[in-house]
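2024-03-11 09:14:02 DEBUG pipeline.ingest accepted 1 chain
2024-03-11 09:14:02 DEBUG pipeline.ingest length=851
2024-03-11 09:14:03 DEBUG pipeline.predict start
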Amino acid sequence: AATEAAWRDSPTRLAEDLAAELDLVTVGYRERVVTELLQNAADAAAVTGIPGRVAVWHDDVGVHVANTGAALDRAGVLALSALRVSPKTGGDAKAKTSGDAAAQTGSDTKAKTGAVGRFGVGFTAVLTVATEIEVRSTGGGVAFSAARSAAAAGAAAPVLRLAFPENSPPATGFDSEIVLRDAAPELVSQFAAEAVDVLLDLPALESVTVDGERFTRPDLPEGAGPHARWIVGGDARYLHAPTRTDEPLTLPVRVVADLPVTSDRRRLHPDADVALAAVGYAEFVAAQQDPLAFLPPRRPPAGPVDARLREAVETELRSAPWLPGGLRPDRAVLLPGITDELYPLLAEVLPVLGPGLSAPADAPRLFALGVTELTGAALADALPRDRDPGWYGRLYDALEGARVPVDELGALPVPLADGRVVTGARGAVLLEDRAPASDTPAVHWARLVHPVARHPLLDRIGARRVSVSDLLADPALRSEIDGVDYDDPDSVELTEAVLALIGDRELELPGWLAALPVPGDDGVLYPADELLAAAAPLRAALGTDSPYGTLAPEWERRYPVAALRSIGVGWTFGVLREEYPTGPDDTLHDADAWWDGLAAEPPESIAVRDLDLVDHWDPALALIADLRGVLDDPDGYTAWWLRTHTELGRLRPPDDPTFAGLIDPCSHPSAGALHAALFTRVVDDAAAQTLFDALADPSRRPSPGVVVNAYRALAGWAPDLRSPGPSGTRLFRTVRGELVSDPVVLDRAHWRFVLDDFVFGGLAAAEDLAETLGLRLASEGEAEVVSTGTRVARGADPTVVVAATLGAVPDAVDAIVHPRLEVAFEGRTTSVPWWIDDAGLHVAVGRGAPV
């Protein structure tokens, strides 16, 4: 009656109410009837706390929508018949105005019930499908009719302002029922199509049954915060508050938020704080198996609401520990290309993301949330310097598989054998031949990479590969040895490191390593080369007066003999090796004399030490014969010293007959290896004197060939061989083997026909030999051809032709032929086959002819 009176008193009020209702029907609530009726049912169920059920069917009366939950009450009727007043809003007209179709539920305030409706206008959606509506409930009902309202107003009037009594009960098993009398049957199909989607938004509803087909909420993963739920699956294109609005979203989840909307429920209220819908989203993401799938996409927002919500979500995600391992994006790093092998190593020391989060397509999204991209250079800088060497070795392996650019790893930490971890491989060295793994050498004169961390990656970022021999030839080591304090027991640590590098091998190392400190059996430290091993064979050669001490027994037990020998501890003779020496080594006996006798500086000096200390040469020579390379050069120090200071210089190799009968053979079992130190040629004045004396020794029985070899060897040596020998008289052995005091040196072949005593070392060497021996040349004698001959041209006489062809006589332009050729010399005449004098070539063609 009050409404009718108001319309009668103010036709304008009637027009305004009609226009408002038409606006809601044609614009605000078009296509929302299913959503609004199911939402009202959800509110009614929420009041009772019992899961709601809805049934929809069509019959001859119309379309029926029944629900369980709170029944219609007086306040609900008033809300249905007045715009923008709803008991679910607490009746706050200033904030929310009045009326809500959900008032049919008789709900209390939203704070108590969790109701969805806010403005009391959602029920207007029924007018989009019907003009005759009944609301039946267990406590009574009302009806709304377009025809009856128009009749009461006397003109077109709003349908939902006048509530007529309706006493029909709701369907059995339900608390309320809405009957849309003139609705089309197709509306039922619309309920079937939208039921599942709406059930996702309205947890107060348990099921919707449409023409006997029961629809329930899909079992989809979801999470919840204080102001929103996030459902994985379903339609995520729009914001739901809690049912679908027209606000587009791009988050990969369905957002069902507790946010105020406009009266038509299509848009978010301008005062709504969209960021509330993001509170707790990080915890939801953290609980997902694939958290990256729930990040905001890397494309432009779909609208201002979407932009604000995504910004809020990104802000929440940026500082929350939702990443695997409890990492926060703003404190996490991402290494592109990280592998399953590299990740666990880096995860020990860095807040690094795993391979599953490091795909190229995902990286930009993570960077946008504050994750820092880890370059190779940044990784190298960030790695710890306090891990064990094995950890770094595994790291290098894993880095290669991750394909981190090598040129960015210059600052990679590198563990050294001495326990340090340094920055960068440049200047570090890698052993080509690994030291024994059980005894890592504490090398500190070089940046030696720890054996368990050796890796080809270090080669490519600046490390240098060296052999043990190279490392032990480092000048830095020599400097350390030069500064050794033999009174400091800790000095042996340097020696221990060297021995650990050598292992069980025997290496050719620089001689200065012999100054390494080594303990003797008296507990005192000595240079290594001042001690002998207890069982050293050298002891037998040196005798009891040896100046060497004895190595401490415990060191002989700890280290292989080969390693001890390599650093100079005596076992056999020590060998000094030096490339391109510029002078004699002053530690070698008589080295100045050897150096002065060299024609030029040698490219290498290999010298046996302590030869002057030998007491027993048989064992000494056996040891020297076993030393590699020391006797390769006959002019080297060792061969020279043995030749000049021992009997070896007066003995010949037993397999060399050059001076057999003059020089005795060496009978030592190692004679073959001692060849360079034996008498094989005249190398100096002393050797020349030895050979000369042997030629003059009447006890010697050399063959003519050996005599010739000896004179040929003597030719050109110093003339002091003219001095008398021990007998006081100079004697010379002729080719026939006789010893004479004044022979001549045969220098012309034909003189042999008239001489009885001469020495001969070859025609080419005759003058030098005469000078060396202080003898006359045979050709200096006076001889004369006394027979008569006839001069013939070359080739004219058969005897001459044959003799010249056979080499029996010299070839000449012409010759003087004699039936018998006779030469007078020193008071006697001798028949000879041929002769040469100032007249030319004389040849006997009769008796005594050369052929």
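2024-03-11 09:14:41 DEBUG pipeline.report The chain has a mean pLDDT of 90.
2024-03-11 09:14:41 DEBUG pipeline.predict end
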